[in-house]
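Kindly draft a polypeptide, keeping tokens residue-aligned:

***
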Amino acid sequence: MLNKETQTTIQTAYRAFLNARDLKARYAQKHMIAAVARQLGGILSDDAGQRLGENHLVAVEAGTGTGKTIAYLLAALPIAQAKGKTLIISTATVALQEQLLLKDLPELAEHAGIEFKYEIAKGRRRYLCVSRLESLLSNQQDLSQSALFEDELAQVLGPEQIKEYSGLLDEFASGRWKGDRDELERNLDDETWMPLTSDHMQCTNRRCAHFNACPFYRARADIETTDLLVVNHDLVLADLALGGGAILPEPADSIYIFDEAHHLGDKATNHFALSMRVKASEKAFKTLERQLKGLLDEADSALVLQDPISRIQSSLNVVQGHLQRLDDLVSEQFLPLPVDERRLRYPQGRVPDSLASLTRELAQFLSQVDPQLEKIINALKGAMEDEESALDKGVGERWLPPLSTQFSRVQKMMWLCRSFSQDIENEEDKVARWLVRHESEAGRDIELHSAPVSAQNHLQDLLWDQCYGAVLTSATLTALGRFDSLFTQLGLPLDTPALRMPSPFDYANKAVLHVPKMKFDPSKADLHTEEVADWLNRELPNLTSVLVLFTSWRQMRRVEELIDTKLLSRLTVQGELSKQAMLVEHKARIDRDEPSVIFGLASFAEGVDLPGHYLKDVIITKLPFSVPDDPVDATLAEWIEARGGNPFMEISVPAASIKLTQAAGRLLRTENDSGRVVLLDRRVVTRRYGQQLIDALPPFARHFE
């Protein structure tokens, strides 16, 4: 139960915030504060502060206008402080992170009377590794003279790269730049930036000569003393995959707020997916063989290295032989397919026995290589820390990064092969498996893919069972008005409280859902596209501020071609400018009393805030059903069919409902807004599922022709 002191703190902070901002309390906001505070405050703990019991999660759907960000901050922050836990706010988009860091948190700190420290947390790859940068620059002369192999040649820099990297080192050394990629005044592409970073395997931590100046560990020091962290879903998942507490505070010492929680399932599925290119792996092992010989020569055959290197070398020929057999086997499976077919998916994820057997054997041999490589890595790290080590410190500095990369690659290959070789006994074990054929100037390669059909088990084991508490929130947590899909996708306990906050908007009097009469629905794609263009050509001259949402590039570009040339001056099409630049241009036109129309895809159906006169008409060209060619979705559909279900009604319609609600949510952003949502897809009135989709939308006034 929420104690009286914390309850008073929350109430006082809310009143102070409202008074300072000259705002009135919103019913939905108060309701959400109470619901979150009641759930988090009711978590029982032992004397060590560890959670007792399972009643520690809550899901809250809160639409636009609720003020959900301030609601969960005011409810959760005092509780986290009282319980000695770190509050971790996780988002799916950069836009929401920026809103939190630049607007919501500063306002809360200024007006609510709560003293707290907040930081943004990012992964290692966002920070400079000083050691990698110095090593790259200092080794250039030697590499340019002696590089013989592909991996060494890749490290030879051109004059412009040397100039760029030298400039970065000067900026860092002078203090003008703190080593954070996001704080650079110029944009560096991934090809330029990634060689300057390290991962958790390559990093030598305190053994590194630059540890005290390390941008990542300086940021980590700030994290350890903060009350509140702003992160993204990917970073939370990366931390959990490393066991939790590797990047962020321990889950048991954290209260998580997952804003935009409807993205968490897809993020998790992608995060736990595995892949391996066969020929690239062959090449990697040849490189590893050469690297180990070079290491042994440079270390004067040190005893600490002889045994693990000998054991690895005895397995390398076997591993390479298995990879060659694997290449032959998967290549054969493409033979019956058309030449232009690049993907082969295994129904229900069940691979042929020959492939399962071969990957099982390969996994066994990789499991023999893995611990020996780890011994070498530990010996190299020891050389950088222990003056009594048999290895020279310079040997450790030179060989740790490339061999750590190889170690990580071997682990991922081993996990992929294990995944491919495991039997699928029932729906609980369901996994998608497929092959992708790649063609390039370097030749042909085939990539093996494996991905969980649902990340529910991973999330349950690594997150829900481990964390102190968590709040899941979004404007669209429900599908067709129910939380069922969310619970299934995320593996939430069935007794998790789930609430929908009432909207403050007067939808019935402020907005209209208009479904015009159309001759063709999207099943006749070309005819429907032409009819959409005809409708827009008739209607756009009379409209001032419009967002037109498409589900495919093909349709959007074709409609653009068919638009009357007299309307093109008011039109901005996604792909011409960045999303932010398009929104700025749109607002500028409206401010000049000029009509403006945006053509956008799915990214414009979420996270776009155009209040008042900036948006009066949202036009949705067709229902946002996903393209049915995703291997994970296709595999899940097969499992649903196998148990007698209807994948279209269980997967496609609920997913379309969420997307449609998000798209319609672009219209009303404040209580004073008004306008129209137009749906140019008659299937909402001609198909059985149409009424379900309409009923799940806000209660707009309806105009169906």
